[in-house]
Design a protein that fits this description.
The complex is a heterodimer of chains A (375) and B (316). Chain A is built from 14 helices and five strands. Chain A is an alpha/beta fold. The longest helix of chain A has 31 residues. Chain B has two domains: 214 residues, P-loop containing nucleotide triphosphate hydrolases (Rossmann fold); 67 residues, Alpha-Beta Plaits (2-Layer Sandwich). Classes of the chains: A alpha/beta (375), B alpha/beta (316). The structure holds adenosine-5'-triphosphate (ATP) and magnesium ion.
Chain lengths: 375, 316
């Protein structure tokens, strides 16, 4: 424990006395977030909308009014068949289709739940995700006011469920890659970059400066050295996660739906295979430059194939297979599920298992390869 | 079997890098409390030997034990027993003097209750008291070496490896450094040291001479001189001087001739020449010899001779 404490203290001093790297670590994600976030964040208003109102009652027109009041929708087309709705969206003339069922009025009046279907063109993910939440909110708000009027007029009878249920259905790009997904993507990427490349550098630096020679004649154990090397980067990575999420939430209104405890726990889990990879590289590289070059062939496919920028479903089959071999893929999925969809642990167990396997394999390999010798 | 295991016993130690043999079947042992000099020209395999003995490199062949512990079977067991100061400065530049010492005290597991006392002792010994909070980066050569020595001995090792500890250090600082070495030796630390300075070699109890990966000789400085030199090192005052050196270099039985100030310094490899004979021989080449003086031979002469023989041995 004494040895370990001395090592940690030394690593912390290294990190704190190198303000340039530290600034870089914290500035890079913020810069990326601002650039990509603002580039994506065009104001969304008056999205061309096609309406197929099969009910045509006062109740259904009231619902449409509350949609229109949000300013998101511009009711450019009124059509009389589902096929026409799809045709207009396919042609790109409408981005949103609203379909009201024939029994809408009846269901609302009898205090059942009326289903409204909102179709979204996911090809433009920024618009689609904004409209998706606008539609859901408008539906909920309208439902609540209808219900409270009913309560006031008729007293508490029937079901307490919301009278309006807005179902959204995204056509194309159902993962809705875009601004809401940018923050999870960025967190994952930044963690990957800091954890892998900085760890790789940390050990190679000792080798390059020759300090490793003085270090490995001491009785420290390999694992103590390795763990002490990665702990400062784990701390930095957590701090970075908080920072990115704060900026994402305050500047871009990114949702924080799921459990933060779960989120940070899984950030911790994800760091293990990532740091393992960095250590593995550092056992092979002789110079810092080499280490940096060696992270490239891993960094590039990780960014391209893990679903940060392109939906995995749009990749050729072979690349989809490759993407299954990247820890980043699983972590992105986990982050999006927790942050955007707010799911609990039970829905992401396969991804957690995958990350655990990666962690064991990569850290195991690194520990096996890291020898306390110079040859 | 000795009841008391020797600080260092080396047997047939060999290291190959590919086809190149950097250390070739080296065998020797070091006595308790000895200052053992390990000498040799650049690239003769000194650092490679030390690295193997500290468990930093795996030998191709051979065995070594430190205080009875097999270095290559139990490399981790020898680490608390030894101190090592590498040839290249290898402390942390961004840590202060005190932080470096504290770090090594920590990783060597010096008990916390003794740490402060031990570090104060070392700061005092190395004269670094005034500089505890200087960043290591800002220390000059001599101070750096003393700090490196300090870090290598925080855990009071029984056997200390010093790889060219005084290279690049001015004569006064070297003197101070050697005083430190003697002080440690007098307290029972065994010291294994490499150096390129012959005056330092004379200070060692015994000296091993490495040449082209092989151990050529091992003895006390005095015995080395009497065994190899037979007292035959001469300074010639002659005219013209440069031609004299050239001519002598080509002469049979002369190991080496070199310019020493206004004299030609000659190391003889055999007893075939007397001063008179050599004067006559040189006169035949048109060189006037004014005087020949037998000089106090040095270890440098011994090594020049051994290196000369080594070269001949390889050519043959
Ligand atoms: N890792 C290595 N791979 C290949 N060759 C090496 C390696 N390390 C050392 N050598 C070679 O082995 C030889 C002996 O090197 P070593 O460093 O042991 O010499 P030295 O006696 O310490 O020299 P110096 O006085 O210059 O410090 C040199 O020719 C060197 O180039
Ligand atoms: Mg050397």
């Amino acid at each position: 424990m004494r040895r370990f404490r001395a090592l940690i203290k030394k690593e912390m001093i290294h990190m704190l006395r190198d303000p340039r790297t530290l600034i870089f670590i914290f500035m890079m994600p913020i810069m990326q977030l601002l650039l990509l976030g603002y580039a994506n964040n065009t104001e969304i208003k008056n999205v061309p909308t096609v309406v197929f109102n099969q009910d045509n009652s006062k109740a259904s027109r009231a619902l449409l009014d509350s949609f229109q009041a949000t300013d998101y929708f511009s009711f450019d087309y009124a059509v009389y068949s589902q096929a026409e709705v799809y045709r207009l969206i396919d042609a790109g003339r409408a981005k949103v289709g609203i379909i009201i069922p024939p029994d809408y009025n009846q269901n609302v009046a009898t205090r059942k739940t009326a289903d409204v279907l909102v179709l979204l063109d996911g090809a433009d993910p920024t618009i689609a995700s904004a409209v998706m939440s606008a539609a859901a909110l408008a539906g909920q708000a309208h439902g609540a006011s209808v219900r409270s009027q009913q309560l006031a007029l008729q007293g508490p009878t029937g079901s307490a469920a919301s009278p309006v249920d807005v179902r959204t259905n995204v056509l194309y790009n159902p993962d809705l890659l875009g601004s809401y997904n940018l923050v999870p993507g960025l967190i994952a990427m930044i963690l990957f970059q800091t954890a892998t490349s900085l760890t790789a550098l940390a050990i190679v630096k000792e080798r390059e400066r020759g300090t490793i020679e003085q270090l490995i004649v001491t009785p420290i154990r390999s694992w103590e050295l390795i763990v002490a090397k990665i702990i400062p980067y784990i701390l930095v990575s957590f701090a970075n996660t908080v920072l990115i999420m704060a900026v994402g939430t305050f500047l871009f209104g990114v949702p924080l739906r799921g459990s933060l405890v779960l989120l940070f726990g899984l950030v911790g889990l994800y760091l293990l295979p990532t740091l393992g990879l960095g250590l593995l590289i550092s056992t092979a590289a002789k110079t810092q430059q080499q280490a940096q070059l060696m992270t490239m062939p891993i960094m590039l496919p990780s960014m391209m194939l893990s679903g940060v920028f392109f939906p995995i479903s749009s990749l050729p089959l072979f690349l989809q297979f490759v993407s299954n071999l990247l820890p980043l893929t699983y972590f992105i999925y986990i982050l999006r599920s927790i942050l955007v969809k707010g799911v609990g642990i039970e829905l992401i167990i396969p991804q957690i298992v995958a990350l655990t396997v990666f962690a064991i394999v990569l850290l195991g390999l690194a520990a096996m390869r890291f020898q306390k010798t110079l040859d | 079997m000795n009841s008391q295991p020797l600080p260092l016993e080396v047997n047939g130690l060999t290291k190959k890098f590919g086809d190149f043999t950097a250390v070739d079947h080296v065998t020797f042992s070091v006595q308790p409390g000895e200052v053992f000099g390990y000498l040799g020209p650049n690239g003769s395999g000194k650092t490679t030997s030390i690295r193997m003995l500290c468990g930093l490199l795996t030998p191709t062949e051979g065995t070594a034990s430190i205080l009875g512990v097999d270095v290559f079977k139990n490399p981790e067991q020898i680490k608390p027993l030894i101190g090592y100061m590498s040839q290249k400065f290898s402390l942390y530049d961004d840590l202060t003097v005190l932080e470096n010492l504290q770090f090594y005290a920590g990783v060597y597991g010096v008990p916390e209750s003794e740490e402060k006392k031990r570090i104060d002792e070392i700061l005092h010994l190395a004269g670094l008291e005034e500089r505890t909070s200087s960043p290591t980066l800002e220390l000059s050569g001599g101070w750096r070496q003393r700090l490196a020595l300090g870090c290598a001995i925080v855990h009071s090792p029984k056997l200390l490896f010093l790889d060219e500890p005084t290279s690049g250090v001015d004569p006064v600082a070297r003197r101070v450094f050697w005083d430190l070495i003697y002080e440690m030796a007098s307290k029972g630390t065994t010291i294994f040291i490499t150096t390129h300075y012959m005056d330092e070699a004379e200070h060692c109890n015994r000296v091993a001479f490495m040449y082209r990966s092989k151990l050529m000789a091992l003895d006390t400085p005095a015995s080395l001189k009497s065994t190899y030199l037979h007292g035959a090192a001469w300074d010639l005052a002659a005219n013209p001087l440069l031609e004299t050196v050239d001519e002598l270099t080509k002469t049979d039985g002369v190991a080496q001739a070199s310019l020493h100030g206004d004299r030609a310094h000659v190391i003889l490899d055999s007893t075939q020449w007397s001063p008179d004979q050599l004067t006559k021989y040189l006169a035949g080449k048109g060189i006037t010899v004014n005087s020949i003086e037998t000089v106090q031979s040095t270890l440098e002469d011994v090594f020049t001779l051994l290196a000369h023989r080594g070269k001949i041995g390889e050519a043959a």
